[in-house]
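MODEL INPUT / OUTPUT PAIR
PAIR INDEX: 1
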Amino acid sequence: MINNKETLIGRVVSIKGNLVSVRMSEKSFSLMPVINGVVYKVGQPGSFLKIPLGYANLYGIVTQIGVDAIPESLKELTFDNIEKLFATRWLTMVLIGEKTVSQFERGITQFPTAEDEVHIVTNEDLSVIYGGLDERSSISVGNISASESLPAKLNLNKLVTRHCAILGSTGSGKSNTVAVLMESIANSDYKSSRILVIDPHGEYNDSLKEESKIYKIKSDPKKIQSELYIPFWALPFNELINIFPKGLNDKQLDYVRGKVLEKKIEWIKSNEQEEKLKIESVTADSPIPFSIKQLWFELDDFEKQTFEENRDPTNKKLNKKGDPNKLISNEYEPAGAGSSKPFINHQAQGILSFLDGMRNRMLDQRYNFLFSLGDLTPDLSGAVKKDLHELLTEWLGHDKPITILDLSGIPSEIMTPISGSILKIIYDSLFWGQELNVGGRKQPLLIVLEEAHNYLKAGEKSISSRTVQTIAKEGRKYGVGLILVTQRPTELDETVLSQCGTTIALRMNNKGDRGHVSAAVQDELANMTDLLPSLKTGEGLIIGEAVKIPSRIQFRKISKAPKSTDPDVTKQWMLDRPDKNEYTTIVENWRNQQF
C-alpha cells in the first residue's frame, strides 16, 4: 500500500477552467522520488498527476513547469516578494478525466479548490487510466512510455471508422508504426479483417509477407507475389485520357468520349448483357471492357482516310490494310494538292498527334500493367476472359487479412491518376455493394495510404485528392477507413487531414508540420506538441478518438523491419568490397526495368 505522503508533491493554488496551477512542496524538490522501489520523475511535460477528492480522483496532464507556470495573478506581486516567488517550484496541469470507484472516464464533473493536494500518478493509477478498453475491440501496439510494463492499446473501431493520420519526420519510425498496426490486426481474432495498402515503394513486401497477399508490377513468383494489373477500361474516362500525352480540346474530348461510350455499349450487346445492364445508365466512366487497340485503330483510320470523290466515304483510297492488334495503321493514298484527287476527310477531328502519343504509350513496356492485362485484356471485340468482379475478388476476397498493392513499378508521371483510380475502383465497388456481405458495412475495409503526400497534394483537384476526400467525409457510412502516412503534413490536403479522428505523431522537427498536430489537440494541451522534436525513434504521441486520453507511446519493433529502415553504414562499410561485375547486373536490371 502506498503512503499518500510519499506521493504528495504540492498543492493547488489556482483553477481557471480545466487549467490548474500547482505550487510544489519543498520535499518534492528532488523531482525523482522512489516509491516502492520505483523511481518516478515529477513534472515531466506530458506526464500525469492526480488530485484526490474524497471517493474520486481527478487526473491531469502536465503542460508547463517552472517560471512560465506561475499564475498570472501572482506575477503582479511587489518586488519584495519576487525572490520568494521564483524560489518556489510551479507547474501547470490540464484536467482530463476522473476515476470514480474503479472506472476512469474522460471529462470532469467536479473541480478542485485551492490547497487541495496534488500527487504523483503511480503505475497503479496508470493501469486505471489506460485500462478498461474492451479486449475484443482493441489492439496492443507497444507500451506506455512512462511504464514499460503497461501495454498501449488502441480502440480499433474508432481507429478505422474515424480515420487516422500517422505523421513523422524521415527516420522517426513511421513504417515500423504502420507495420505494427497491421500486424496487430492480422494476428488478432479478426477472421474477416481486410486491409488494403497502397505502397508506392514496396516497403512492406518482406515485413508483412506472412500476413499479406502482394500484387506487384513485374512480380517475382519466387517471393509469392502476384502480378498487378490495373485495367484501363475500369478507369474513369478523364483519367484514362490523362495517361496519354498531348491534350485534347473540349470538342475533341467529347468526340473521343462518345467513341468510348459506343465501344462499351457494343460490349453489352455482343455479350448479351442487356438484361443485366441498362444501356441508358452506361457512361464513358462505367467499368465496362472495350478494346483500346480497336478504338485507336478506328480513330486513327478516320483521321487518315482519303476519298476518290470529295466528301464521298463510300470510295476510299486504301493502299494497305493495317493491323489493330499490332497498332499498325491503314495506309491511304496521300491527298492531292488543292482540288485534285484523292480528297481528305473533311470530318476528321485533328487528333492525329494525340493518337500518335496514345500509340506510343500503349507500346511502352512500362505501361503493360494498364494495357497488357493477361486474362483481363479485351480482344478486338471487347470480350475478356476475366472480368472486374474476379479482379476485386483477388484484391479483397482472399483469405489473408492484408493486400499490398506495390506501385513501385508505376512511372512517376502517372502515379497520381493511377493511385487515385485504384482508390476509386475500390471505393465505388464497396459503395455499390454496401448491402452485401462483402460490402464495407458488413466487412469493413481499412485503406493505408503510404507516402500520402506524394499523390495527395494540397490544392490539387486530381482524382486521388477527390477520392480520398470522399472517403474521408463519407467512408465511415460505408465501412471504409483511412490511415494516411506522411512525413510532410503541410503538403497534404487540409480537408482530408481534418477528417482524421486519430493522429499518431512521431518525432517531428519542422515547426510548420508540428502546427498541423497542434491543430488536432485541444488548446490547453497544445504545448504537448513541443515534445515532438525530442521523441525517440519509434515513440509517438497518440491524440484523438482511438485513445481515452492523449498518450505518449513507445511502439514495439516489428520482427522484420520494413524496407525503409536505414542501412547500417558502418557495418556495411566494414565488409570487403563487392564484385565489380555486379555493375553489369545493375545495367541489365535497369534496362529490363526489374530487380
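PAIR INDEX: 2
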Amino acid sequence: MRPIETISLNGTWELFGFPQQGSPVERPSQLDVHTPIPAAVPGVAQLDLLGMTPEELYCGQNINLLRQYEGYEWWYRKRFHARKEENAILCFDGIDCNASIYLNGEIVKYSDNALIHHELDASDWLIDGKNELVVLIGSPIEAAKQESYDPMLAAHEVGYESLHLRRPPSSYGWDILCRAVTAGLWRGVRLEYRPATRFTQSYLVTRHCDEHLAALRLFWEFDTDLPDFAGLSLRIEGTCGESKFDLTRPIGFSAGNWEFALENPKLWWPAGYGEQNLYEVKLSLLKDGEPLCEKRDRFGIRTVELRRTELTTPERPGEFVFLVNGVKIFCKGSNWVPLDALHREDPARYEPALALFQDTHCNMLRCWGGNVYEDDRFYELCDTYGILVWQDFSMACGIYPQTADFRDAMRVEAESVIRRLRQHPCVALWSGDNECDQSWRGRGLDPNDNLLTRKVLPEAVSRCDGARPYLPSSPYLGPEAVRRDLCSCVSEAHLWGPRDYFKSEFYLNAQCHFVSEIGYHGCPNQSSIEKFIPQDKLWPWADNPDWLLHSSEPTGRPDGPYAYRNKLMADQIAQLFGSHAQALGDFILLSQIAQAEAFKFFIEHARAGKWRKTGVLWWNLLDGWPQFSDAVVDWYFGKKLAYWYIRRSQAHLCLLVTEPRDWHVRLLACNDTLQARRGTYRLWDADTGETLLSGDFTAPPNENTGLGRLRAESAAHRLLLLEWEAGGERGVNHCLLGRPPFDPARYRAWLAQIAALDGSFDARQVGV
C-alpha cells in the first residue's frame, strides 16, 4: 500500500508587488528584472511589503496604510525540487483571491474563490529537478470593477465591492472589523503524490441512535487504475474505549452506501449533556485481503435535529429548538467572528480562543456569515470540547447576485465546504447567510425569491450531507412572515433594537424562542488600549480619530456608518449610572460593568424562560482586531468583567434570581445536564449579610425548578449574593435589583463582594 507523499511548499517565497494598471510584468519570466521581497506563506502580501507585525499594523492609524495597496497585483514565486510523476497534485488551501497559477512558465489554473481549497493535477507540467511555481493574484478592487451590478443588489456602504467576489465580506470594513482588503496565499500550499488507488470521498453518518443501538450508514468513493473490481472488499474499523466495530464486505463498484448497526454505542454529546465520545475510524480498501489504500477519521455517533416554526405569536406559539440524540438542548454560547482581520494568525489563536468558550461553559457557537470558513483544526477542537457549530455560509447583510454564474460559484463553494466539514459531529446546522433576508425585505423585496438560499444551498446540503438541518437565513423571513407582514414574529431573531437599557421592553418582551445575536458595548482594559491608541490620544474619546477608527469606523468620518458606537458606549454608561464618565479609568470600569450586567441579564433571562426560550448566542466573545466593541475578550486576550459574569451565568447548573414581578422575585435552579443535581444553597443580602433563603434543593434533569420567592420592590437598589454546592461542585452568582441610575461608588463596593464569591477575578484589576 502506497501512502500519499506530501512536499510542503510553505515557508519563504519571493514576492513582487505592482500597481495593477500598467503593470510592467506580463509573464513570470519578466520578474527577474525586479527585486523581490521575502514573503511568508501562509501570509498576507501587504504585511510582508510593509515589514510590520499585526501588532504594529493595528496601532493608531496604521491600518489605513493598507489602502494604498488595494489596487496592486501580487506575484508569488517559489522554486522547489520535485519529480515528474502521475497523480502529482498541487494543493492550495487558500488563495486570496483572483489568481493565475503558473508552473514552469505555463499557466495551468485560474482560481477566484479565497474561501475554499483549490487543487490541480500538475503531472504534465512538473519536471525532474528544480521547478518554478508562480501565483499571480490580481487586485480584488480591480476585479470588482469588471463586474456588472444590478439595481436590486445591496451591501454595506463600505462593502459594495464585496458582492461578486468570494472572499471574506467583513474584510471591506464592518461594524466589528477594520477595512483590510488583503491579498496573498493565506493558507498552506503543498505538492501531493497520490497513489492511483485512493479514496476520494467517505462519509460515516448516524441515522438514528440511543444508548442501546446505533444505525450507521457509510458512503464511500474511490479512484483506481485496476482493470476491474474482482477481489475487492471494504473494511471499516472503529474504536472508542471499549466500544469497537470491525466489518468487511465485498464490493463491486467504486462508490456505494453500506448500512450497519452497533450495539451499546458511546454517544457524542454537547458540553454539559454528556461525554464527547469520538471513535477513531479506519476505512480500508482491500484486494484479496491486502490493503490498497486507507483513510482515517474521527467520528461521533449522534443525531441532530432542529424543530422550528416560521412564526411564533401569542395566539399561535411556535418553537425553535435543537435536539441532539433526541434530547432538547438549551444552547448557550457566542457568535464566532474573524479571529484576526488579516486571518494570518487564525490557526495560532484557535486553541486559546476555544479554551475561552469551554471555560465559559458554551455548548454552541455560530460561525457568522461575514467570516471565512475555519480550518479543520477549529472543528476538531469543537468536536473535542462538545461545542455545537451553527455554520453560516459566507454571505452577510446584503443582496447578492442572482446570475447563473454566481449561482454556480456558490454551488461549488457550498459543496466544497460541506464535504470538508460534514464528518464533524460538532456541526449542527447549515445556515444560508447572515441577515440577507432582512436586506431583501429592507428593499421591499421578497427574500423567498433568493435563488441562492432557497434553491442552490439547500440542494447542495441535500446532495452532500442530508443528515443536518438547513436554515435559509438568520433570521429567516419565510413566505408566511412576508405575506402576513409578521417579520417581527419569527421564532429565531437577532435582538439589537435601540441598544438602550438592557432591561428595556425591547429585551424583556421579545417573543422569539432563540436569540442568535445580542450584545452590549464594553471598553477594553487600559493596558490593552495603550497598545493600540497612542499616548496622546488616550482621552477624551469624543472627536478622537483613533478612537473612531478603532470603533471599526472604516471611513474615519465622524458621520460614517459606524461612527455612533463610542457615543453609544458612553450613553449606556449614563443610562446605568445617571451621568457620563469624565476620565478614562472611570469610562473603562463603568462601561465594563454596564456590559457585564447586560450580558448576565441576556443569558439569565433566556435561561429563566426555558423551554419557552431555547438558546442565546451573544455577540461576541473575542475581537478580531484591537477595538472598542461588544466582545468580552479583546484581541490581546484581555478579559473584560463580562467574561467572569458570563462564566457564572452559563454554568451547566446555575442558580439565578428572576426579575421582580408582583412584588416578588423567584429563585430558580437551572439544570442544563441530564442528571438530577442535589445540593444546598444560600441567598443573602450583600449590605446586611442577612440570609434571605437557604436550604437543600433538587434540580431535575434538563429543567428549571423553583426554590422559593422573595419580596422585592422593583425600584429599590439591592445586591443579592448566591452560593450553592451540588455533587462536590460549588457555584456562585449575584443579582442586581432596582432601576437605574445606580451609584457608581456603591457598585464599586459591591463589585468587591461579587469578586470575592469565588476569587475567580480581582475586583481591583477590572479595567486595568
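PAIR 2 NOTE: The CA atoms of residues 233 and 249 lie 5 Å apart.
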